[in-house]
Structures
1.
Amino acid sequence: MCKWKDKTIGKKTIPAEAFEAICNIILESAKQRNPITYKEITEEIKKKQFNNIIISRKELGYILGEINNQVAEKTHNLLGKSIYPTAIVVKTGTRTPSTGFWGVNSGDNPPSKKVITDKKEQRKVLEEYQCDVFDISKWDCNCQ
């Protein structure tokens, strides 16, 4: 079970329930084997209205980083292989993750160790990370 906690980002406290809900949004997308956009996550968050908190794009990036860290550590400890769920969270226009994804340095095979300048090679590596995420049986946090 993931252990979400309230986190203060700047002057705003984001409730643990928001972290859990966003993780579950990504999990549902993975079950359907579809990437999800930042915009789609933002729209889903608005529907849930956590104490009327509006989560900015920057705060969403922080939350996604926390989700990656928890799932990467949990899966590494359970499976011996880290899963990085935000590999399937993509920008609308490019269908690629933000640069923040490539800076992730937790777990045993972090994207930050994959310094790739060739776009085709980067796409191939991204697809490998995404396949791990789509194999839902490997990382389901049971946060529902």
2.
Amino acid sequence: MKQLSIITAVAMLLLCAGQISAADNLYAGIQLGSEFLTDSHDDVDDAVAFGIYGGYRLDRMVSLEANLTTATHDIDGPGDAEISITSLLFGPRLTGQAGRSVNLYADAGLGIYYLDYEYSVYDDSDTEMGLYLGAGMEFPLQRGINMGLDFKYHVLFADDLIDSDLVTLLVRVGFNL
């Protein structure tokens, strides 16, 4: 939890610092949705994921985006076990317009995944690297506010705690800064 607080504080400071120099090109928002593990184990439940995201538009089609998402999965079985996964993602985003008011985008990049496994007397944490591929759509609600749907497939490298990839499906509300 301490790592999540530090990461959130740093992300907010970076967003605020960037707002001073290039306010027209920055965007940020919140996201909420589902996170699924792709393994075949039936004992790990799906989780509600939430987080923040922000980006800098290099031009109309290309932007750089950072994303921080966290979710806690319950593990069925004897005892009280859960695994918390916090994802910190960064990569380019390519956007195209479909019609007048719908933007479609694709993104890919690197991820750092903080895993925290807790079982009644056993506690383990790990940090893994990975890649993600994503796609989504967004449309304006009103001037400066967008709503959208974001899908990402996360590939974790050499994970010891869970032998699985991740899928996130998130609803986003974003603001132009």
